[in-house]
Amino acid sequence: MFSILIANPKGGSGKSTLATNLAGYYAAAGRKVMLGDVDRQQSSLGWLTRRAASLPAISGWEVKVGEPTRAPRGTEVIVLDSSAGLHGKKLEALVERVDRVIVPIQPSPFDMAASEAFLAKLFEEKAVRKGRAYVGVVGMRVDPRTRSARELESFLSQFEVPVLAWLRDTQLYVHAATQGATLFDYRPAQVARERESWQPIIDWLRISEGRVG
């Protein structure tokens, strides 16, 4: 079973966008995927209630940190959407149970400042230090050619963490979310630019999972 945590202590950073679309990718690929929601707002589980039965199936899972939980039999991939303000024992408990952590960050001074202490703490977690969980960052709502992107890369250099991808600001994510859909539920030609942006994230996860090619 392969597990991914989407985490950033700042609200509105794009966690649910990443989590739902990753779950959509795995579902479209024919994998049995659980979308675990650790957020009290239950944004991801709310999104699932709008998902049409005709789309590839994604199962929902309300995860309560500190309580024993086990994914249903046959689950192949778990994607965990975490809450704002994640820190301390809750962060440690989640990182201990996953293979990969993806941190979405927007390239603004406020977002970078809010993420700095979190990233420092994340790299202190035993699972990360021991190489049991690996961390990557996704730049959200940004064009990689802009000064903002360069400033975010400079900020992240202190942590030696890879920027996996840059996802631009587009209403496509909003439109898909209102229908419980993802990029991977559209015909490839309709979302070619966005899917190209996602490919480095998918490649990183496939290599991590040992599914190359």
UniProtKB/TrEMBL annotation:
Domain CobQ/CobB/MinD/ParA nucleotide binding: 4-180
Superkingdom classification of source: Bacteria
Residue ranges of the TM segments: none
InterPro entries in the cross-refs: CobQ/CobB/MinD/ParA_Nub-bd_dom, DNA_Partitioning_ATPase, P-loop_NTPase
PANTHER family, alphabetized: COBQ_COBB_MIND_PARA NUCLEOTIDE BINDING DOMAIN-CONTAINING PROTEIN, P-LOOP CONTAINING NUCLEOSIDE TRIPHOSPHATE HYDROLASE
Protein name as annotated: ParA family protein
Organism (species): Crenobacter oryzisoli
